[in-house]
Amino acid sequence: MSDRHDEPSAPADGPAPIAAIVARAGYMMGETFERTWARDDAVAWEGLLETARTLRRGAEAALEQRHDLGISMLGIMGRLARAPRRTLRQTDLADAMGLSLSRISRIIDILESRALVQREPCPSDARATNVRLTRGGSRRTAAAQETIHDYVDEHFVRQLNEAERTTLAAVFTRLLDHPSAAADRHAQEGDG
To answer: What is the pLDDT of residues 69-82, one digit of tens each?
Structure first.
């Protein structure tokens, strides 16, 4: 690696030392990275990915431990909790979650076996299946949402000052509003 990528000593006890994170950019992009990116470019890109992975794993673990739910399960239940009559079509859930219909169906099978949701025929389309959040599902959703809120508050929000949160919000808004990001999201939803 060139001198542009010399690393300051990173704490060895952390889950993802900065040197290892920077190295990932080189593994993925090879010589192009080494010729064109400064260390901060690699830290920004790979740090974003590692932070997202770490926070998602932590949130998933908190949900599993306290509520026996995964992130996708809570995503489905949270959408149902806000829907009229706590009911949505299974296909609409798949579209909203950006997941395939077969993946959504497998998750709903698990939720239904736990009496958290119930499938029902769609009254306006005999080909469609509705999914309704049960009362027990509503209670579990509210408790799990509180757990996620507390996790995100402790591990993300309180780790940043107001100016940092404002900057991140502006940066991610700009990146997510970029036409290429919208096209990528659309393509991923089609692959779901």
So the answer is: 999 999 999 999 99
Domain residue ranges of the chain, discontinuous segments joined by + = 1-67, 71-146
For residues 156 and 62, the answer to whether their CB atoms sit within 8 Å is: no
Residues 6+ apart with CB under 8 A from 168: 160
What does the block give as tokens for 170?
């502006």
Percent of the chain exceeding pLDDT 70 equals: 85
Look-up of token digits 């940043």 = 160
User: 3-state DSSP call for residue 89?
Assistant: strand
Cα dihedral 73, 79, 84, 86 in deg (nearest 10) = 20
Which of 3.90.950.20, 1.10.20.10, 1.10.10.10, 1.10.3720.10 would CATH assign to domain 71-146? 1.10.10.10
